[in-house]
Amino acid sequence: MTSSSDALLASLAALLAGVGEGIPLNLNVSLTPSERVQALEKQVAALSSELSTLQREYNRVEYLYFCESKINQRIQDYCAENHFRLPRSLYRDPS
Fold this sequence. Notes:
single chain, mainly alpha, 65% helix, 0% strand
């Protein structure tokens, strides 16, 4: 330990020795986030924003797929009701 930390420790020990003997103890602590913590907070904010954007895009694509599936099902039902045979190639995976 350094002399300044020894002096601080001695002062705190003297102060704490009087606790409970009618001497009130007031303790104020201020913490300042380090640069590393601030950088990580910025990174979390950026990732949260990116996640929000991706979630909106995902919801949009999911909705478009839902709509396309419904339309395709209606077309198939209409064709079946009117005895129109769709080519089997339309049912295959295009890839």
